[in-house]
Structures are given as C-alpha cells and as structure tokens.
Design brief:
By secondary structure, the protein is of the alpha/beta class. The chain is about 40% helix and about 20% strand. α1 runs parallel beside α10. It binds 6-O-phosphono-beta-D-fructofuranose (F6P). 6-O-phosphono-beta-D-fructofuranose (F6P) binds next to β12.
C-alpha cells in the first residue's frame, strides 16, 4: 500500500478541486492508497508541524467539481530556492521542504501547478530524490507539450461573458470599450475570448501593434456605421514605445510585481488620437475564480486519474497532458522548456483576421 502526497502550487484556477477529487478517487478507491493533502504548496512543507492531512471520503464529494479555487490552498510566491525573509534577504530553504516531505513518509508526490512551480518542484524532487508526477494548470495556457491546462476554459468563459456584458452598453453609449485580460506573457485568453465575444481589435504580446493601425480600424468601423467598438488587450502588451506596464504588490523582499494597467494606456491613447469616448474594464482575478466550466472539470478529472496511474507504473518525472483528443504523458522537462505562446501565424490568428479582427498591425 502506498502513501502519496498531493499539493497545488502557483496561482489558483477553476478545476483544481476536480483534479484533487480524481486523484483521491483513483488512488484510494482504485489502488487502496492513502492520499495526503499538503497545504499551501511548498509553504506547507516548510512549516513545523508540516501542514498536511490525510484526505478522506469528503474528497469524493461531487461538490468539489463545482467549486472554484483549491481546498488545499496554494501560493505563487516564496520560491524555496530563494525564499524572501522579513529582513529583506533571500535564503535557500529547500532542505526544510525536502525534510518536511520526508516527515510525511510518502512514496511519491503529485503536484498540480503551472510551468514556474513545475520547474521549482522538479528541481526540489531531483535534489531530494522525490518521485514526482505533475498535472498542468493555469488560466494562461502557456505550459508546453499540452494543448490545454486546467483553468483555461473557465477563464475564457469569464472573459467572453465580460464582452457579452460590454457590447450592449458600448452600443447604447457609442463607446469604445477596452477590456484588459490576464494571460502573463501569452495572449491565449485574449485571442480565444476576443473571437468568441466579437472583439474588433485584439492586442496580444506576440503581435506588435501600432496605435495608428488601431485608430484606422476604428475609423473603418465608423465608416461602416458601427457606433461602438470592443478592444481586447492582453495584460503583457507593452506601450507603443515598448515599456511593460506593471503593478507592485507588497514591500520588501516579499514584494511581487504583476502585469496591469495597459488597458488604461490603450484607452487613453485611443481617446487622444480619435476623440472617441472610451471606458476600461480590467477583468483581473474574476478569470481565476468562479464555477469551473465542464471542459475544465473533465480534463482535471482525466488528468487526476492518469497521474495516479503513472505512479502505479512507477513512471516519474512526467506531466500528464491533453493532446489530439486524448490524455497523454510527457517528460516534465518538455513541458517547462519553453512557454507556449500564441503562434502569430497559427490557425486562430488566421481565423480572427479572416473575421476582420485587427491585431493592431494592419487594418483587416
Ligand atoms: O498565471 C496566472 C495569473 O493569473 C496571470 O494571468 C497573472 O498575470 C498572475 O497570475 C496574477 O498573479 P497574482 O494572483 O499574484 O495577482
């Protein structure tokens, strides 16, 4: 009988609880193993006593399919290789994490995370001899070697729904509505929701834009008697002169910086250059929470089951993924080698251009 650890790491997203439920179902009911849920990612392993508990039948509850966030808690800061201390210094705390893992007497670990957490925990696993299997999650959908990750579909749904809400008010007031969306350095959420929600302009970090081209597109819409426009901007889009727009959170060594604010810049520039009345919506963490969409529940469930099967087969250092309509597994190394960003020549960009959507590089 095995005893396996399970943790969620990095930013939360919808569908994580469905994956936890699937791991418990397969491991406990399928193989008779004990599943130990570790709290708050690696932070739970650093604490003494270690923050973890054996999962019980409550983990089978179908409410978990419907519940956003993660019941185990998570963290997207506090890299144990460079842990920020209160005095402003950074300390290597990896030995504490590995010791914490060993205290739990585990045979293997399943981590559910994005590429950043995966890289960190893989390094820890190598250092501590921890048999590891990874499950990909991120609203950004930027993990390599898988077509999709847990959380992406729900984020696209939230962003599309925002456009559904913005369109009537834009039309009523003859306004240009700018919607700023998450996605870190990838424009997937903006591209998918922009197509689904009828955006006129989609700005993504993978395609450089010119303000003049955006204004030309808006002019073209006016000539076609359209009295409003919907402009979607991915958060990592830079100013026209190439500056990233970011926000700092907290202070000292623990301060974090995220993208944020490019929507306001784009709206102000459009207003300045065209005289249009603009308004900005920054959708933010609404894209991360909420009830998981069916697609996220399904892949999370399939990923959880396959991850446990990999442990049963002693196939470690692998990530489960979704490719060509099936669950697959790949070396974690392949998944974290390079971020999966939008291909500017890819099918979806071509489709969007075919629909007349402008990427701000030319008037479609
Ligand atoms: O990676 C997920 C993500 O939501 C990004 O899209 C966003 O840039 C970032 O996390 C926000 O992080 P935080 O939760 O720290 O604000």
């Amino acid at each position: 009988m095995k005893r396996i650890g399970l943790l969620t790491s990095g930013g939360d997203c919808a569908g994580l609880n469905a994956a936890l439920r699937a791991v418990y179902a397969r491991a406990h009911h399928g193989y008779g193993w004990t599943v130990v849920g570790i709290r708050n990612g690696t932070a739970g392993l650093m604490e003494r006593p270690v923050q973890a508990e054996e999962l019980d039948e409550r983990a089978m509850n179908s409410d978990l399919l419907r519940l956003g966030g993660t019941i185990l808690g998570t963290t997207n800061k506090g890299n144990p290789f460079k842990f920020p201390m209160e005095d402003g210094s950074f300390v290597d705390r990896t030995n504490e994490v590995i010791e914490g893992y060993k205290m739990l007497n585990l045979d293997a670990l399943i981590m559910i995370g994005g590429d950043g957490s995966m890289a960190i925990i893989r390094k820890l696993a190598k250092q501590g001899g921890i048999p590891l299997v990874a499950i990909p999650k991120t609203i950004d959908n930027d993990i390599g070697a898988t077509e999709t990750s847990i959380g992406f579909e729900t984020a696209v749904q939230a962003a599309t729904s925002a456009l559904d809400h913005l369109q009537p008010t834009a039309a009523s007031h003859s306004r240009v509505m700018v919607l700023e969306l998450m996605g870190r350095d990838a424009g997937h959420i903006a591209l998918w929701s922009g197509i689904a929600g009828g955006a006129d302009v989609i700005l993504i970090p993978e395609i450089p834009y010119k303000l003049s081209a955006i204004c030309e597109k808006l002019e073209q819409l006016k000539k076609r008697k359209r009295n409003f426009a919907l402009v979607v901007v991915a958060e990592a889009v830079k100013t026209e002169t190439g500056e990233a727009v970011t926000a700092v959170h907290g202070g000292g060594a623990g301060a974090t910086r995220t993208y944020g604010g490019i929507g306001q810049y784009i709206a102000e520039e459009i207003a300045r250059l065209t005289g249009a009345e603009t308004r900005v919506t920054v959708l933010g963490h609404v894209q991360r929470g909420g009830t998981p969409e069916p697609g996220d529940r399904v892949i999370a469930s399939a990923f959880g089951v396959h991850a446990v099967d990999l442990i049963a087969e002693k196939r470690y250092d692998r990530m489960v993924g979704w490719n060509n309509r099936r669950v697959v597994d790949v070396p974690i190394e392949d998944a974290i080698r390079a971020a999966q960003t939008v291909d500017p020549q890819g099918e979806l960009v071509t489709a969007a251009r075919g629909l007349g959507i402008s990427f701000g590089d030319s008037v479609a």
